[in-house]
Amino acid sequence: MSQHIVVIGGVALGPKAACRFKRLEPESTVTMIDQSSLISYGGCGIPYYVSGDVSDAIELSQTSFHMVRDPKFFKEVKGIDVQILTKATRIDREKKCVEVENVTTGEKACINYDKLVIATGASPRTLNLPGDDLKGVNYVCNPHDATCIRESISKGEVSNAVIIGAGFIGLEMAEAFADMWGVETSVVEITDQIMPRLVSPALATMGQKHMEEGGVNFYFGETVTAIEGENGKVVRVVTNKRTLDAEAVIIAAGVVPNSDIAKEAGLNVHERGGVFVDEFMRTNDPDIYAGGDCCLVKNLLTDQPAFLPLGSMANRQGRIIGSNLAGSESKFDGVIGSFVVKLFETSMAGTGMSLETAQAAGFDAISVLLIQLDRAHFYPTKELMTLELVVEKSTRRVLGVQGFGSSGDAMVGRINTVAAILKSKPTIDDISNLEVAYSPPFAAAMDILNTLANLADNALRGINRGVGPDGFKELWDNRESSECFFLDCRENPDAQPVIDRNPGQWHNVPQGEIYNRLDEIPTDKPIVLICNTGARSYEAQIMLDAKGYKDVTNIHGGMASIKKYGVDV
Rhodanese domain location, by residue (predicted)? Predict the structure, then answer.
C-alpha cells in the first residue's frame, strides 16, 4: 500500500531519506519542505568556496554529474515533490499533519502524512553581541553566506578579519582568509587552545604554531564583548583584553539543534536541544523519524547521548531512515566521534575520546604521543606524522586516537582505521598487531599504528616513562630549580648545535656509547633523555634503568615534537 511521506528539511538528511525511500517504494508519494530557497547543498564545503578551492558556489548544490539539486531536479529525476520557502510551524500528531506557512506570502496550509521525517538541522550558536547585525558580520551556514563573504573579499573590502571560535569552522575560515586572500586574520577563542576537548593541548599547540606560520593570529582565554562599526559596517571587534580591527567577522561558536518544533509536538527532546531517537532513528512516536543535526544519538564509548553535527553522519542516517520508512529494520547503532580538519598544508584528525574527555567521562586513562615517519624511512617522500593514543589503564582498552600531520591521506587513513574498530572495544594488543597494507611508498614495515600501541604498552609496563613536548617545556622552563640533566642521545653532529646554544645545560652521550660513558651521567639528578623522535632515548632509558638510575624521563616525540610544539632550545 502506498504511503505519503513528509520530510521537514531539505539539506542533507532530508533529501537522502526521501530519495532512498522513493527508490524502495516508487509508487508512494514524498513531499519535502524547506523554509529556504536553497536545498540539498554541501554546507561543509563553504569554507573551501570562500578560500577559492571551490570555484563556484553552485558546485555546492550540484551532483557529481553537474546537475543542480533544485526542486525541478528532485521532481523530474527523483520523483519527489519539493516545497521551498515553506516553513513547518507545527506538527499535529493526532491528525498526522504538518502545518506550514509560505514565508513569502504568509499563506498557510496543512500537509497530511502517513510517516514524518524531522530533518531540521542545526543553527549557528548566537552570542547576542552588540553589533552582530552590522554589515560584514557573518555566520557560515549556507551558500548565500559564503557568497557574501567571498564577494566582499574579492572586491578588496577586507584587509582584516576576526574569527570568533577556534573549532572546525573557525579554523577552516581562518585558513581561507589568510591563505588564499592574504587577509590579516585573527582568531579569538574563549578556551586556552584550538579545537578544545577534541585534541590534547600538545597537539593543539602544534596546530596553532603551524597556523601562526601561515599568518593567523590567536587570542586565547578571551571573550568578545562587542562588535563595533561605522556607517552600518563592522570596523572592529572588542574583547575583554584588546581591540582588533576587522572589516569582516565570522561568528563560529558552534551550532545548536533545531528541535523546537519536535519539542512543541510532545516528542522527547533533550533539555539543551536535540531530538532523542532509538537505533532505528525513530522518535517516541513510531510514525515520526528524526536524524542529522537536529537529533541526539548514542555515543558508543560512553553510552551517553551525543550531538555530532556532520554531513557524513546525516547522509548515513538518511539512508537508514529511508529504508525503515519502507518497512526495513536498519539500525544506526551510534557514533564514535571522528573528525578531520585541514590546516594549510597539514591536517588534524581524531576518533573517539581525547584524554580530557576520557577522564571527564570517568575513565582512568593515560595518553602517549609518538612521532614517526608515515612510510619507509628510505622512501623519498616520507613525512613525519604525530599520533596520540588514549588508553584505559586497567583494561588496556583503546579509547581514542588523534593526530597531526600532512593534509594528504596518510594520517586520516590511520585515524579511520582505528575508527572502524573502536566500537568493538579494541585493546592495545589489537592495535599492536593490526594488519595494514604494506609497501614502502605507503607505510613502514612496522606501521606507526603498531608502534604507537607498543609505546602505550611500554608506558603501562613502566619501561618507557616519559612526557610529551608540553611536559618537556615545563621541565626546560624550570631547569634551574629542578637541576634536571638534559641528555641528548643523538650523534654529536646533531646534538652539538643545541649544546653550543645552551652551554652547561645540554649534554650529549649518544645512545650507543652510554655504557662506556656512564661517568658523564650523574646518578643524583633527574635525567631527561632526548633524541629525534623518542626511540633512541627509550633505548637509553632501558640502559640507564639496568644500571640503577632511578629518575629517568624520556621525551616522547623527541626533538621533532619539541620543534612542532614551538619550544626554542
Answer: 507-567
Q: Indicate the pTM of the whole model.
A: 0.92
For residues 305 and 299, the answer to whether their CB atoms sit within 8 Å is yes
Same domain, 449 and 470: no
The alpha carbons of the chain give a radius of gyration, in whole angstroms, of 27
Distance, in Å, from the CA atom of 342 to the CA atom of 422, rounded to the nearest integer, reads 23
Question: How do residues 330-363 score in pLDDT, each as one tens digit?
Answer: 999 999 999 999 999 899 999 999 999 999 999 9
Cα atoms in the Cβ-side hemisphere of radius 13 Å centred on 479 = 14
* Shared-domain flag, residues 449 and 388: yes
Task: Read off the C-alpha cell for 333.
Answer: 547503532
Q: Is the pLDDT of residue 44 over 90?
A: no
Cα–Cα distance for residue pair 414/374, rounded to 1 Å: 10
Provide the grid cell at 21.
525511500
Question: What are 459's three cell numbers?
Answer: 608506558
Task: List beta partners, residue 224.
Answer: 239
Contact 404, 207 (CB under 8 A): yes
Residues 460 and 556: their CA atoms lie apart, in Å, by 14
Domain housing 542: 466-565
- The beta-carbon contacts of 140-144 under 8 Å, at least 24 apart in sequence, are 140/46, 140/47, 140/50, 140/169, 140/173, 140/250, 140/252, 141/43, 141/46, 141/255, 142/36, 142/38, 142/41, 142/43, 142/46, 143/38, 143/41, 143/46, 143/49, 143/57, 143/60, 143/61, 144/38
What is the arithmetic mean of pLDDT over 116-137?
Answer: 94
Q: Kindly report the CA angle at 443 between 438 and 449, in degrees rounded to 5?
A: 100
List the grid coordinates of 227. 562588535
The span from the CA of 40 to the CA of 17, in Å, is: 12
The domain total for the chain is 4
The C-alpha cell at 48 is 573551501
Q: Tell me, yes or no, whether 320 and 362 share the same domain.
A: no
Last residue of a domain, one of 238, 253, 268: 253
Query: 73 with 62: CB under 8 angstroms?
Result: no
Give the CATH number of the domain where residue 494 resides. Answer: 3.40.250.10
Residue 44 known to be catalytic: yes
Binning pLDDT at 50, 70 and 90, where does residue 151 land? confident
Site of grid cell 629517568: 552
Closest CA to 84 of 31, 152, 16: 31
**pLDDT tens track for 245-293:** 999 999 999 999 999 999 999 999 999 999 999 999 999 999 999 999 9
> Contact, 521 vs 514, CB < 8 A?
yes
Q: Which of 44, 97, 110, 295 is catalytic?
A: 44
Asked if residues 377 and 535 have their Cβ atoms less than 8 Å apart, the reply is no
Calpha distance 514→491 (Å, rounded) = 12
